[in-house]
Structure formats: structure tokens, C-alpha cells
Design goal:
Elements lengths: L1 E3 L6 E7 L6 E6 L5 E4 L2 E4 L4 E8 L9 E11 L4 E9 L6 E4 L2 E3 L6 E8 L4 E7 L5 E4 L2 E5 L3 E8 L7 E11 L4 E9 L4
Parallel strand pairs: 1-8, 10-17
Antiparallel strand pairs: 2-6, 3-5, 3-7, 4-6, 7-8, 9-11, 11-15, 12-14, 12-16, 13-15, 16-17
């Protein structure tokens, strides 16, 4: 017999039944702290059954993403049975955060930056895009491991632009979420 808790299940139910002619005395044992058995032992008269709940606890100290296995051994005066149990703790999903959400070059600045961070698990693969030719992005794509950050530099080139206000949106696309950074710039009247 085996039970796989997968990545979400926390409870599995099994039944201990006395099919013999005497009182059945049984108990369970296991090695790992993440699996609990309730009740852990019991006594059953002839023809009676008991429900036993197996509980997987993914929040036990020092549990990290990965696969876990144990054997719950049931021993009794009527025979023995091993139940293989397994569970998986999935890696946390990537989560893209960025700051600031808007930048303003004013009428004189030529470079501004914003930062990207993976506040989740795994690795984020990200890409930044824009529409206007006066704005460049460097780097325009990359990868971020869990907890890591990157600085993205925006450069504004006012060459050949008429005086006035300009804007664009840097679109961020990733496997950890999407977002956008609004960009403003002014070209002053000639002196």
C-alpha cells in the first residue's frame, strides 16, 4: 500500500480492520517528523474497523523544496503491513517586483535607472520593451535567481526632437509577472 500526497494533499485515510476471531492489538511507527499517524495505535474486537488519518506537514522545520518519503509500519498480533508515503514540496514560484514605477528625465537628465527583483523562488526570465526611438533600455532582458536584483538603465536622446513633453511606457514581461514603468521627458525651448 502507498500514499502520495503530491504537492497539495495533506490528509490520507486508511482503515485498519480486524478480520480475525480475537482482539487485534495494533500500533504504527514511522521515522520522519513530517508524517503524522492518528491514532498511532489501537485495539479492535472481532469484525471491527478503525479509521487512521495520515497527515503530511510541509511546514516542519528545515523542510526545503524536494521529494520526501517514509514508511509507516503497522505491526499487530494479526500481521504486519508497511505503507509507503511520499510528498513533494514545490519550489516557490518566481515573483517580479520593480521600483520605481515611473521615471522623469525632466528637461536635462539623460539617464535614469529602475531595479528588478525576484522576490519569489526559481529563476525569472524577463524582457523590457518600449515604443519610442528616443528611449533606449540596457539591458533589455535577463534572468534573476531567487532574491537577486538587476539595475536597468534608461537613456533619453533629445537629438532632433522638437521642444515639448514626451512619454513612453517600458513594458516588463516575465514568467514571474508583468508590469510597466512610465517614462516622461521634456525637450526645452532653445535658449
Amino acid at each position: 500500500t502507498s500514499f502520495d500526497f503530491g504537492i497539495n494533499d495533506t490528509l490520507k485515510i486508511l482503515t485498519v480492520t480486524n478480520k480475525g476471531g480475537q482482539t487485534l492489538e495494533w500500533k504504527s511507527s514511522k521515522k520522519e517528523a513530517w508524517i503524522n499517524v492518528l491514532p498511532a495505535s489501537g485495539s479492535l474486537t472481532m469484525g471491527k474497523s478503525a479509521t487512521v488519518t495520515l497527515t503530511a506537514n510541509r511546514f516542519t522545520v528545515d523542510m526545503v523544496p524536494g521529494s520526501y518519503k517514509d514508511v509507516v509500519a503497522f505491526t499487530s498480533n494479526g500481521g504486519n503491513e508497511n505503507v509507503n508515503v511520499s510528498m513533494t514540496i514545490p519550489e516557490e514560484a518566481p515573483e517580479l517586483t520593480y521600483t520605481p514605477q515611473s521615471v522623469d528625465f525632466g528637461s536635462t537628465d539623460t539617464t535614469k535607472t529602475f531595479s528588478l527583483t525576484n522576490n519569489g523562488g526559481g529563476t525569472i526570465d524577463w524582457k523590457a520593451s518600449k515604443s519610442e526611438s528616443w528611449l533606449t533600455i540596457s539591458p533589455a532582458s535577463g534572468s534573476l535567481a531567487s532574491g537577486k536584483s538587476a539595475t536597468v538603465t534608461l537613456t533619453a536622446d533629445r537629438t532632433g526632437l522638437d521642444p515639448g513633453s514626451y512619454s513612453d511606457v517600458v513594458s516588463l514581461a516575465s514568467n514571474g509577472g508583468n508590469g510597466s514603468v512610465t517614462v516622461a521627458m521634456a525637450v526645452p525651448e532653445p535658449a
